[in-house]
Amino acid sequence: MTNKKKYTGKNQVPKKYSKKSSEIYSKKPVEHRKEDEIRLNKYLANAGICSRRDADKLITDGLIKINGKIVTELGTKVKRSDKVKYKNKIVGFEKHVYLLLNKPKGVLTTVSDDRGRKTVMEFFKNKVQERIYPVGRLDKDSTGLLLLTNDGDLTKKLTHPKYNKKKIYHAFLNKELGKKDAESLVAGIELEDGFMKFDTLAYPDPKSKKDIGVEIHSGRNRIIRRMFAHLGYDVLKLDRVYFAGLTKKDLKRGKWRFLTDREISTLKRGTYE
Q1: DSSP conformational letter for 36
Q2: Which helix (H) or strand (E) holds 190?
Q3: Average pLDDT value for residue range 27-47
Q4: In angstroms, how far is the first alpha carbon of the chain from the final one?
Q5: pLDDT digits over 211-253, tens only?
Q6: CA–CA dist 273, 257 (Å, integer)
Q7: Rounded Cα gap, residues 273 and 270, in angstroms
Q8: Going by DSSP bridges, is the β-strand pair 194-196/189-191 parallel, antiparallel, or unpaired?
């Protein structure tokens, strides 16, 4: 099998996700310029209802009311004093906030759970007033970086199938990873939902071949666990250490912080790997 990307056991991945940063983290959300009026689709996106594009559909479908009247015209502008309703509930204007959580194991990546299990939202209870939600998912047993926001446009961009940015994970296996299997994971394997491969695979600890660093671009559901399972390995622990240009630097497990202005700007421009 031809391997276009040469596999190596050298310690490649950790250098990438342990990059030092001199940024000072902000404890307050970013303040946005006040405007007398803003477009209705932006108002709805800022409130965390949906993205601007989806907001346009809500408007044209007649699902939005301003001061008691149904509005269907795109481009309609809203004053902050106006009462905007969706599903007969008032939609309050919120400034965008962006938070990074180092998710611990055993916590669901969801806004609520009908079985009463712990969700990531409990870390922000009585601490963040805006209605935030997770960007993408980490399964219950996985740990690491999770972005939360009320920016509908950014959320849709980062979770769209065409989103093709690097993610780095630290996987701990139940047994040592064989050389041929490592080569296969980088060259690519065929799963039930199609062909998949790791971009890079390395050993963060040269003394342990159970301890694996993985760089990947795909956002398929449980893809890393499924790829290792396909070759007969169980992933005992899985930790996301790099996502959307963000790292876990100085962020302990179970802790969170607001993004810096620079990080927000980088996220919106997409100027990261």
Answers
A1: S
A2: strand 189-191
A3: 67
A4: 28
A5: 999 999 888 889 999 999 999 999 999 999 999 999 999 999 9
A6: 22
A7: 8
A8: antiparallel
Q: How many CB atoms lie within 10 A of CB 164?
A: 9
Backbone dihedral angles phi then psi of residue 134, each to the nearest 5 degrees: -70, 145
Q: What predicted TM-score, i.e. pTM, was given to this entire model?
A: 0.71
Counting Cβ atoms within 10 Å, is residue 162 exposed (0-12), middle (13-18) or buried (19+)?
exposed
Active site residues: 139
Question: Residue 172: which of 137, 214, 222 has the closest Cα?
Answer: 214
Q: Structure tokens of 250?
A: 């100085």
Distances (CA, A) of 96 to 128, 148, 259: 12, 11, 11
Give the Cα separation of 55 and 152 in Å (integer). Answer: 10
Pairing between β-strand 200-202 and β-strand 211-216 as defined by DSSP bridges: antiparallel
Residue position matching structure tokens 């421009």: 269
pLDDT for 9 beyond 50: no
Confidence of residue 125 (pLDDT cuts 50, 70, 90): very high
Count other Cβ atoms within 10 Å, centred on residue 198: 27
Is the Cβ–Cβ distance between 145 and 219 less than 8 Å? no
Domains of the chain: 37-90 (3.10.290.10), 98-162+249-269 (3.30.70.580), 166-243 (3.30.2350.10)
* pLDDT mean over 179-208: 94
> Can you tell me the distance from the alpha carbon of 84 to that of 134, in angstroms, rounded to the nearest whole number?
24
